[in-house]
TrEMBL record:
<protein>
    <recommendedName>
        <fullName>DUF4231 domain-containing protein</fullName>
    </recommendedName>
</protein>
<keyword id="KW-1133">Transmembrane helix</keyword>
<dbReference type="Pfam" id="PF18184">
    <property type="entry name" value="SLATT_3"/>
</dbReference>
<feature type="transmembrane region" description="Helical">
    <location>
        <begin position="29"/>
        <end position="50"/>
    </location>
</feature>
<feature type="transmembrane region" description="Helical">
    <location>
        <begin position="193"/>
        <end position="211"/>
    </location>
</feature>
<feature type="transmembrane region" description="Helical">
    <location>
        <begin position="56"/>
        <end position="76"/>
    </location>
</feature>
<keyword id="KW-0472">Membrane</keyword>
<dbReference type="InterPro" id="IPR040884">
    <property type="entry name" value="SLATT_1"/>
</dbReference>
<feature type="domain" description="SMODS and SLOG-associating 2TM effector">
    <location>
        <begin position="167"/>
        <end position="288"/>
    </location>
</feature>
<feature type="domain" description="SMODS and SLOG-associating 2TM effector">
    <location>
        <begin position="12"/>
        <end position="163"/>
    </location>
</feature>
<dbReference type="InterPro" id="IPR041116">
    <property type="entry name" value="SLATT_3"/>
</dbReference>
<dbReference type="Pfam" id="PF18181">
    <property type="entry name" value="SLATT_1"/>
</dbReference>
<keyword id="KW-0812">Transmembrane</keyword>
Length: 294
């Protein structure tokens, strides 16, 4: 009975470990950054409301020491590097796996299956060796012990038409849905944070103008300015506008990729279709990763 669904849980165990390592590192990075920015705003609030109180000064000092510790942790542990490396390994393995199950280049030549299997496993080892720094972050508990799952073997042995349908639905269709949703998500978040930034800057301008009129009034201008800077830092970190543009472009490109499937009538054409599709998926991820590192 042909497989109707093929998703990430059917990919090699190394993918599961790399994917989990990347997600955990991403979560830790953003949690640390978020904590750092929130604590800075709280420290500014305490300094404003308790300017002449010793406990206020001690509280502010404590918060600034904590934020200093967060900065040191980010610099020493470098969760961003683990995030990027884990994502690079996971995506590379996913691309290689889809090529293997679809009998696409370089796993399309007429040689014994055992040799093709060894070539695939050798490629997985090469991917890991190129990212040795990730090894210490891989969780063996997330390893199901299968370098090649039964589902992968079953799909590889299916007829051309069935493999093509699985690829169109589970790979191309899945990517189209993912990029479409992510584009909308980042567009919405970019708008929300832009509105918050405008409100904070407008509030700071209003307070400054009011201070000119009433110099004796004490207003938390520094607190608002700190909050505005925190929002800007968060926006620069998340890059919602850039991701919206990038994901939208990828989603439209996938629409064009879908149309190419209509011409696939042979193993050679299927191989070319898969290689071109995977190259497009990898290109978007590589460009995004490069932008995040700059």
């Amino acid at each position: 009975m042909p497989i109707k669904k093929f998703d990430d849980e059917h990919l090699p165990a190394l993918f599961q470990s790399a994917d989990m390592a990347s997600l955990k590192a991403q979560s830790r990075y953003y949690f640390a950054l978020k904590s750092y920015l929130i604590l800075l705003v709280i420290a500014a609030l305490i300094a404003f409301y308790f300017p002449n109180e010793s406990y206020g000064a001690l509280a502010s000092v404590s918060l600034f020491l904590i934020t200093l510790g967060i900065l040191i942790w980010l610099n020493v542990q470098k969760p961003e590097d683990t995030w990027y490396n884990g994502r690079a390994v996971a995506e590379s393995i996913k691309t290689r796996s889809w090529r293997w199950v679809m009998r696409a280049e370089p796993y399309d030549h007429e040689v014994p299956e055992e040799q093709i299997r060894k070539e695939f496993l050798s490629d997985l080892k090469s991917i890991l060796n190129q990212n040795k720094s990730l090894s210490g972050h891989l969780d063996s508990q997330n390893n199901n012990g299968n370098a090649i799952s039964d589902e992968m073997k079953e799909i590889r042995n299916l007829p051309l038409e069935e493999r093509l349908e699985i690829y169109k639905k589970e790979r191309v269709g899945d990517q189209a849905t993912w990029y479409g949703k992510k584009a909308l998500f980042n567009k919405r978040k970019a708008k929300q944070w832009f509105i918050i930034s405008i409100i904070l800057h407008s509030l700071a301008v209003f307070m400054l103008l009011y201070r000119v009129k009433e110099p004796s009034i004490s207003l938390p201008i520094e607190v608002v300015a700190t909050a505005a800077s925190a929002v800007l830092t968060w926006l620069q970190s998340k890059k919602h506008n850039e991701l919206n543009s990038s994901y939208s472009l990828a989603a439209h490109e996938i629409v064009l990729i879908k149309s190419e499937a209509e011409d696939v009538e042979s193993e050679k054409l299927l191989s070319n279709f898969v290689v071109n599709s995977e190259s497009a998926f990898s290109r978007e991820h590589t460009q995004w990763s490069a932008r995040k590192r700059t």
